[in-house]
Automatic annotation (TrEMBL):
Keywords: Signal. It comes from Nocardioides aromaticivorans. It comes from the Bacteria. The keyword Cytoplasm does not apply. The lineage of its organism: Bacteria, Bacillati, Actinomycetota, Actinomycetes, Propionibacteriales. This is SpoIID/LytB domain-containing protein. Residues 1-26 form the signal peptide. Residues 188-277 form the Sporulation stage II protein D amidase enhancer LytB N-terminal domain.
């Protein structure tokens, strides 16, 4: 999920205000491009899907003096205080190779996932260690790098590196993670999965979802929402070898390198606390800004209501012919763009539900969420201007 950025649309959103974006111009009527085809201007509000907690709204509420429980009560009405503990398994999506490679350090060991047998890893001149699968994926092969890669041992099934923290080498660089780094079997291949306590996981999530220098009560609200969201996914997903992604498909997670004192304090102050509904973790969706109105979601506590705390981030967008062809394939040249259905909540009749794109070849009605996704719009809360 993501904040100031969306928490980037909800993570990038965390660092930058939701104002004008690249390619955006002042609002105006449809105009002719240099090629003679019309472009269309949109005026918009908010950043993200608008369901559940607005991160800008949480900051506004905290600025007004609300405590974190008051904030989450407002955004998730009908939920109650609950608790969640234990480990969570995070898929590290940046590792696209079969090998799991970590830097050498004292206290490093490798462990069999099935038998739990553990083997200390120490070798003169060692700089890196790796786990690779055998050709049939049935065995984990443990290697050490000194002057070259040398095979150390083979372990039946999956294996994992264990240390207080480890530097993981990725195709794009390296990152430090706590807990365990597992070479996990995944459909005949291998994925790298970080297994950490829920509290440790949050230390790498909250500062990616909300700026660490924001109000303490907003950070606590984010910690509770993020902990609840993770606990919900852990309890309800069927992903097999992992519980959550490290991207906005779940929540953005950067490991130990992203930890900040202010967010660590917010996590510690709310330790184990979640929002629960019916005795189970609530689906605590959140986004950067809702534009002044929350959006009805899939759960009874995700309601549409006016939000007095969200500062209403605004944006403008020029829709090009290329964007409209991507949003509504087969239309030819777009001649009109019309919002034909809205949700009825807020100004302009609320967020767009259906967008009609009229072209020289045909007219297509597109769900607003699809329209937004295909073009990259900041939200579905927009109007033609």
């Amino acid at each position: 999920m993501r904040l100031i950025a969306r928490a980037a649309l909800t993570a990038l959103a965390t660092v930058a205000p939701l104002a004008v974006v690249p390619g955006v111009v002042a609002p105006g009527p449809a105009v002719a491009s240099a090629a003679g085809a019309a472009e269309f201007q949109l005026d918009g509000r908010g950043w993200g899907h608008g369901k559940g907690m607005s991160q800008w709204g949480a900051q506004g509420a905290a600025t007004d003096g609300l405590g974190f429980r008051q904030i989450v009560n407002f955004y998730y009405p009908g939920t109650r205080v609950g608790s969640a503990t234990g480990d969570i398994r995070v898929l590290l999506t940046a590792e696209t190779r079969q090998a799991l490679v970590v830097g050498h350090r004292s206290g490093l060991s490798v462990r069999s996932v099935s038998s739990r047998a553990s083997y200390p890893l120490s070798r003169a001149g060692a700089s890196r260690w790796r786990i690779t699968p055998s050709s049939d994926n049935a065995t984990s092969r443990v290697w050490v790098y000194t002057d070259a890669w040398h095979l150390v041992r083979s372990i039946a099934g999956q294996a994992e590196f264990v240390a207080p923290s480890m530097r993981l080498y990725l195709p794009s660089g390296s990152k430090v993670y706590r807990g365990k780094l597992r070479s996990a079997s995944a459909g005949g291949q291998r994925d790298v999965v970080n297994i950490v306590s829920l509290e440790t996981y949050l230390r790498g999530v909250v500062p990616r979802e909300m700026p660490a220098l924001w109000k303490a009560e907003a950070l606590k609200a984010q910690a509770v929402a993020a902990r609840s969201y993770a606990a919900y996914e852990r309890a309800n997903s069927s992903r097999g070898h992992f519980d959550v992604y490290d991207t906005t498909q779940s929540q953005v997670y950067g490991g130990a390198g992203d930890e900040q004192p202010q967010t660590d304090a917010a996590i510690a102050a709310t330790r184990g606390e979640i929002r629960a509904y019916g005795g189970t973790p609530a689906f605590t969706q959140f986004s950067s800004s809702n534009g002044g109105w929350t959006v009805k979601g899939s759960q009874p506590y995700l309601v549409a209501r006016a939000d007095p705390y969200d500062p209403v981030r605004t944006w403008h967008w020029t829709l090009t012919q290329a964007e409209l062809r991507a949003a509504a394939p087969g239309i030819g040249t777009a001649t009109a763009v019309t919002v034909v259905a809205r949700d009825g909540h807020g100004d302009w009749g609320g967020r767009a539900v259906t967008v009609r794109v009229t072209g020289t070849l045909k007219t297509v009605d597109v769900p607003a969420d699809t329209f937004r996704s295909r073009i990259g719009l900041l939200s579905t809360y927009f109007r033609r201007v």
